[in-house]
From TrEMBL:
Any one Gene Ontology molecular-function term assigned to this protein's record: ATP hydrolysis activity
GO biological process: peptide transport; protein transport; transmembrane transport
Record-stated family: Belongs to the ABC transporter superfamily.
Name of this chain's protein: ABC transporter ATP-binding protein
InterPro entries for the chain: AAA+_ATPase, ABC_transp_ATP-bind, ABC_transporter-like_ATP-bd, ABC_transporter-like_CS, Oligopep_ABC_C, P-loop_NTPase
Domain ABC transporter residues, every copy: 4-254
Record key words, sorted: ATP-binding, Nucleotide-binding, Peptide transport, Protein transport, Transport
């Protein structure tokens, strides 16, 4: 049994218009996705901006209303709010956002920001609480004089550390990390990723790690789903995705990873051109006549890709 199982999840946003402000159409932000996150592992969710990643993340933590499908946590269907309440789901599943400046309350001191989720679930004395927050700050490599400061007194990387400390405060089993390092400089990104990994081992956490950049998630993820237009175009192990990509959209994301080796610059350029050509010429292999992503087909026991289904044995 997985820690979290997502079954045929759909989130459609109504578009209203006309004189009576009626529903005229829908945005199919998430349109039928399935995946399983195993305990202690990191699941990557990767796709361009607008592909529906944040909508999945927000649905999981209960910030977005699900149109249909199921969210199952440790075998219990938690799609409905009262089911989540019953099993303390909000303690077990936390979220970290990209923009720590707006997700951390600027008027609160660090001690209150980090203690807030604890206060919802535990009654600690002032001393106990302070001790607990101090040890959380220590875990994320922040000095204890941070306790009485405000978010604006820190750098972006430090604020992301505070966000992580807040997320682990309730000792959750799963953290949804939505583009946690995308706003940070490259050198700071590496630091934050490293301590997220360290904390994962320490707390036996699972992550749903959301990013628009396949380069960033490479060293974090055990399994990866590639998302395009509200659907999964490919899912597999890290090895499947990086070494044996099947869908043109995955190949495009891979060829978009910035390279630092100057020597092979020409080779990479040629590779990018080939991928673009395949995208133009073989579009119908990857998208149907309405531009919709096909259903996933099995590539191997761990690997699926949304390519046009062809009968085996044919030419
Ligand atoms: N509250 C909303 N109302 C209507 N459309 C929305 C809303 N939130 C997101 N969308 C649309 O849903 C799609 C997916 O958005 P999102 O999940 O934020 O993508 P991502 O995180 O991959 O950038 C986009 O087309 C976006 O414009
Ligand atoms: Mg997003």
């Amino acid at each position: 049994m997985g820690l979290l199982e997502i079954k045929d999840l759909k989130v459609h946003y109504p578009i209203r218009g006309g004189f009576f402000n009626k529903i005229v159409d829908y945005v199919y932000a998430v349109d039928g996705v399935d995946f399983i996150i195993e305990p202690g592992t990191t699941y990557g969710l990767v796709g361009e901006s607008g592909s529906g990643k944040s909508t999945i993340g927000k649905s999981i933590v209960g910030l977005e209303k699900v149109t249909s499908g199921q969210i199952v946590f440790e075998g219990t269907d938690v799609t409905a709010k009262n089911a989540r309440k019953k099993m303390n789901y909000n303690k077990e599943v936390q979220m970290i956002f990209q923009d720590s400046m707006s997700s951390l309350n600027p008027k609160k001191r660090v001690i209150d920001i980090i203690a807030e989720p604890i206060r919802n679930f535990e009654r600690l004395s002032v001393q106990e609480e302070k001790k607990k927050v101090q040890s959380l700050l220590d875990t994320v490599g922040m000095p204890s004089d941070a306790l009485y400061k405000y978010p604006h007194e820190f750098s972006g990387g430090q604020r992301q550390r505070i966000g992580v400390a807040r997320a682990v405060a309730t000792n959750p089993k799963l953290i949804v990390a939505d583009e946690p390092v995308s706003a940070l400089d490259l050198s700071v990104q590496a630091q934050v990723l490293n301590f997220m990994k360290r904390i994962q081992e320490e707390y036996n956490l699972s992550y749903l790690f959301i990013s628009h950049d396949l380069g960033v998630v490479k060293h974090m993820c055990d399994n990866i789903a590639i998302m395009n237009k509200g659907r999964f175009v490919e899912i597999g192990t890290r090895e499947d995705i990086y070494s044996n990509p099947q869908h043109i959209y995955t190949k495009r994301l891979l060829s978009a990873i910035p390279r630092i080796d100057v020597d092979n610059r020409e080779a990479h350029k040629a590779e990018r051109r080939a991928v673009e050509q395949e995208y133009q010429n073989l579009h119908s292999q990857y998208y149907d006549d309405n531009g919709r992503v096909y259903d996933l087909q099995t590539v191997s026991p761990t690997h699926q890709a949304a390519v046009k289904h062809v009968e085996r044995g044919g030419a």
